[in-house]
Design goal:
With 669 residues, this protein is an alpha/beta fold. The model has no long low-confidence stretch (mean pLDDT 88).
Length: 669
Amino acid sequence: EYLLPKETDFLSYNVYLHRGPDLRAYLSRLQNLAEGRPLVLGEFGMDTLRHGQEEQAALLDLHWDEVFRGGLAGTILFSWTDEWFTDGIDVEDWAFGLVQKDRQPKIAYRNLAQKTLGPKDRLVEKFPLPRVPKVSVVVCSYNGAATLRGCLEALQKVDYPDFEVMVVDDGSKDSTQSIVAEFPLVKNILQPNRGLSVARNVGMQAATGEIIAYTDSDCMPDSDWLYFLVSTLLHSSYAAVGGPNLNPPAQGPIPAAVAACPGAPTHVLLSDTEAEHIPGCNMAYWKSVLEEIGGFDPEFRTAGDDVDLCWRLMQAGHRVGFSPSALVWHHRRFTMQAYFRQQKGYGEAEAMLRFKHMQYFDPQGSARWKGVIYGLPRFERVFHRPIIYHGIFGTGLFQCLYPKPASPWAQLVSGLEWNALTLFIFLVSIQVEPIRIVPLLMLAATLLPAISFMVVARVEPKHDTVLARLTVFYLALTQPLVRDWARYFTWLKGKRTPDAVVQTPEKDAGPTLPLFRSRLLSFWSEQGRERVHLLAEIEKILEEEGWRYAQDTGWNSWDVQIFANRWWHVRLRSLTEIYPHGRRLTRVHQGIVPTTFSVLFGGTAVTADVLVALSYPAALPYFLGILALAGVGWLWTGWQLRRRVGDLVRVAARRAQLLPTGGKAPETS
């Protein structure tokens, strides 16, 4: 396995495994090592002198099934005939042939002759599925006319017995509708521009298939795409499955350079067959599971919907599979401007995902994946080589490659924070001569990952010019900055509930709570009603009124976080105390948490006031007074917000048949 040359058109391995599950598992591993290149097995066979023709036939039949059901490009059987010479000597004690020395066919030959795949043979007929559930293929498009025709033509060639194709046009302003009209068998759904997630949900609702497969208008699925997706779902307990997306031959040097750059959608694998994330251009779900979890979140208009859905599936106890042979050809962006727009959208989506799934992100806002991200260039030749176990004197069996962990330094020195610090130190160094070398060294560290990416990136040979490599360097250098800027700006802007919702008082909330009595609320039940009933009603009201909020995913220290306004969030925590005879006391704590914008704004204001006060000492009391008034006003808005949410909680408690108390259980006989 450690022999993974970079510039190869296909890979070939000799695999001698006789048990179906073992062979199947190892073929999945080899498919992932191939990273989109065709995989061919070398020699495989069985000696009929020792095992007999029946056993040989059974083994080769199993091998043949696993190879082609697994989507490999082919296999080489050893050998054609029992007549075998080595070093000029006729080998008499082995008989691996499919035919005997006199060319009489063995049992294995007759069996395999029925399964041989010719140019016109169909995989679904030679290797039938246990059943053939109907599949609805949903193509969501917004101004995708440039590639839509190629997508629909490829879907016409998909070889699967029972599927439908629908295009959900999300308010396109180009010639999308005229292109769809050229394909009368394609169901055409036109809607106003409401975003990618809404378009996917519209497709889900219109689908009549048991399985829904999604791809994009800039993709061209392989002819056996659905066969491998459905096969994986039928032979496993996965709720969803995805596959690789490979870039087709580029149409020019700029698209070729863009295709080689970081930031393309790719899969994240927990194992050779189980995924943590499958990209939206190549994914399929059981429709019942999609409906169970509520489909796609409409908040994600351009990107991030697939990540959110995968995480929600796993949080609900489902698993996501991966089929390395269910591939689509996916056009990358054709221009650098389109590439930067894509990366900006990804950065915004990461910030939105962070609001909803904070446990999956580090403090800098980057996703923390448990699995391995596939499709990234390998940097061993530039920084360090992985370790290979050879054994003593090179005699070790199964000499494996042990890659070193990815260094976090490349991401650190490429990011926006590092570059901002470099700029700051450079400005300071203009006045402080001894540190002038520091920003130069920091800039060199920033350039190094981009240079290494330029060296190792795979650019199509016919477009692999000096200009293409320099373009890769430029894009690899600026991509992290564009993505980080969009992520930080979106996160700083915050997620807020509309002011009209916050300012509208609750109906039937009863007397307004004293300002400082809304921090801790308590409710009593004689019928065993607990916190889960209260939280369910709180979420119903939040949805009805249009509040923005996040629910505990099992990893948070709170139950509900409400994104209230630019300055404050409200976090609700609850507990239930158990009393005799089924009675319960439920307490709700409301914590107000400053937003990121609030902290940065306050810190900047304090710093500016301190600097001005140091320059004008006589004005210090005035500046301190201004700061104090601003701080009181800031806290006052938080307290008012907490009281407003407290009214909402009390209404929810009434709906949940809970009675407000003064903070302790009522005295009962």
